[in-house]
Design brief:
This protein has 219 residues and is α+β, with helices and mostly antiparallel strands. The chain is built from 6 helices and 9 strands, in the order ααββααβββαββββα. A hairpin with a 4-residue loop joins strand 1 and strand 2.
Length: 219
C-alpha cells in the first residue's frame, strides 16, 4: 500500500513539472510592470509639425526714374500675406538697392492707407487725403502703381480708389478721368518694355480732390 501511494505521488509530481514546461493552450494578455518597460516607450510623441502658411507671391510696382515707366519688383512672401500688407509695402517705397538702380515711387506724398476691402474680385483702396497732393504725370503713375500692385494679388482683378471714404475720379494712362473700377489693362502701356501710351485729346488731369460737402450731401 505504501508503495502504491509513493508511486502515485511520483507520477503526480512528473505531471506538474511537465505542465510547467509546456505551452499553455490559452493565450492571455498580461500587464507588464511599468519598471519593465523601456522609458522611451513612455515618452509622449512629439506634436505634428504644421506646414508653413502658403503666402502668395509679392509684387509691387515702382517707377523707373529715367524713363518714367513702371517696373515690377518682388518683396518677401510674408509682405503679401494680405492685400493690405501688400499695399503697405508699396507705400514704403524702394529699398536702398532699388534706389541705386534708379527706381523711385510716385507715391511718396501718400503716408496712409485708411482701409482695404474686397467684394469678390473688386478691391477698394481707401487712401488718405494726401494722395490729392500728387499732380500731373505723377498722379497717373501713382494711380497705376496702386492698381497694378493690387491686381497682382491673387483673386483681385479690378480696383476702386477712394479718398477718406469718398469715391473719386482718377486718371487712366492717357490722362482720361474715370470713376469706374480700374484694371491692369488701363495702365499696361506704362509698363517697362511696352509700347508708349496713345496721347489723349484731353488736358492733363486736374489734381484728385475730395467731393465738395454740398455734392456729398446731395448724393
Amino acid at each position: 500500500m505504501r508503495r502504491f501511494w509513493r508511486t502515485f505521488a511520483l507520477a503526480a509530481l512528473v505531471l506538474v513539472v511537465g505542465a510547467g514546461c509546456g505551452v499553455s493552450g490559452q493565450q492571455r494578455a498580461s500587464v507588464i510592470p511599468r519598471a519593465d518597460v523601456p522609458s522611451a516607450l513612455w515618452e509622449p510623441s512629439p506634436p505634428p509639425v504644421s506646414p508653413s502658411p502658403a503666402y502668395p507671391a509679392a509684387t509691387i510696382y515702382l517707377v523707373e526714374a529715367k524713363d518714367g515707366v513702371l517696373v515690377p519688383v518682388h518683396r518677401s512672401q510674408q509682405q503679401a500675406s494680405t492685400l493690405f500688407a501688400l499695399m503697405q509695402s508699396l507705400l514704403v517705397g524702394p529699398t536702398d538697392a532699388e534706389v541705386a538702380r534708379g527706381l523711385t515711387s510716385a507715391l511718396t506724398a501718400v503716408s496712409k492707407i485708411n482701409n482695404v476691402s474686397r467684394s469678390g474680385t473688386l478691391a477698394t483702396i481707401d487712401l488718405g487725403s494726401s494722395f490729392s497732393e500728387i499732380r500731373g504725370q505723377s498722379q497717373i503713375l501713382a494711380t497705376a502703381q496702386i492698381v497694378l500692385t493690387a491686381v497682382s494679388f491673387p483673386g483681385v482683378d479690378s480696383v476702386l480708389i477712394e479718398l477718406d471714404g469718398h469715391p473719386v475720379t482718377v486718371p487712366l494712362a492717357d490722362g482720361t478721368l474715370t470713376s469706374r473700377p480700374l484694371r491692369a489693362d488701363d495702365y499696361s502701356c506704362l509698363l517697362v518694355g511696352s509700347r508708349p501710351c496713345a496721347p489723349s485729346s484731353e488736358s492733363p488731369p486736374p489734381p484728385v480732390s475730395l467731393p465738395s460737402p454740398s455734392a456729398t450731401a446731395s448724393s
